[in-house]
Amino acid sequence: MEPIVLNQERDASMKKLMSNTDYLLENRKTEAAQRFAALSALFDPVTLRQFDACGMAAGWHCWEVGAGGPTLVRMIAERVGYAGHVLATDIDDSWMKEAASQNVEVRNHDVARDPPPGELFDLVHARLVLVHVPERERAFRNMISTLKPGGWLVIEDADPALQPLSCIDAYGPEQELANRIRRGFRTLLSNRGADLSFGRKLPRMFRGIGMADIAAEAYFPITLPECTPLEIATIKMIRNDLLINGIATDDEIGQHLENVRTGALDLSQPPMISVRGRKPH
Ligand SMILES: C[S@@+](CC[C@H](N)C(=O)[O-])C[C@H]1O[C@@H](n2cnc3c(N)ncnc32)[C@H](O)[C@@H]1O
Asked: How far apart are CA 184 and CA 212, in angstroms?
């Protein structure tokens, strides 16, 4: 039976093989659109609850950081209306271009390396972005610098180290395979600078920089229909990386995808920690 935690030898040989330069799930891959749609289906209701808690209203100016796909951007635009404005940015804006409209501007922008936008916002939001950004502290400060006094920062990030498994109840070879592939995926991410225990650190970061009205909660899918398309799109995107790093064979990846498609697995996701706080007046 596979051990639950990567043993050190295997982890070390994986690390040697992996590049640590680029964003693993680059948006140019064709499955990116499916992955963004799956992320939206799974997480948008959670995010919209955060926006409600902040009191998002018509006329607000919002910055959606690392927006990925168009769905959430459109929903924000609907809420703020034509009196409001949404700036949607990403290092690769190709999949959200279609969201551009009268009150939505889409821009290629690196939240850590580029100067922050020269306008002030009522709300700045980033979901599942900072975990991937090696210079996440600078990105965090850049976002805060663009808030109006009293403006809200909402950051949502996974904490895979809190719950690293694909199948929590690993009762057979299908679940063991799913967990091995998920472990390999985590190692790939971590070797590109992702912080796999980042989510839990967010409240501390908010407190450290003097934000007010801080609140944090976690959303933890155990098995939901939306987890299936997310797993399929993710595995297709990283298939080559799994192969060249010896994490799974082509047959094993094919078998895993088949197990996912036939519904043989209860697929989980790591807890996503949502934190909100406002810049003091
Ligand atoms: C996991 S996806 C999440 C997409 C979207 N926020 C969501 O939750 O559906 C991460 C996104 O962050 C973007 N990203 C990664 N590094 C970034 C950076 N330094 N600045 C801006 N966006 C970045 C990626 O291009 C990708 O679209």
From this structure: 38
The string of DSSP codes covering 136-157 is HHHHHHHHHHTEEEEEEEEEEE
Q: How far apart are CA 188 and CA 183, in angstroms?
A: 9
Single pTM value for the model: 0.90
Give pLDDT tens digits for 173-187: 999 999 999 999 999
Residues in the chain, total = 281
In the chain, the domains with their CATH numbers are: 8-278 (3.40.50.150)
Ligand 1 atom 23 nearest Cα = 66
Ligand 1 pocket test, pick from 36, 90, 130 with the greatest ligand atom count within 8 Å of Cβ, gives 90
Instruction: Output the furthest CA–CA distance in the chain (Å, rounded).
Output: 59
Q: Ligand 1 pocket, 130 CB below 6 A?
A: no
Q: Is the dihedral of CA 72, 73, 77, 80 positive or negative?
A: positive
Answer yes or no: is the C-beta of 66 below 6 A from any ligand 1 atom. Answer: yes
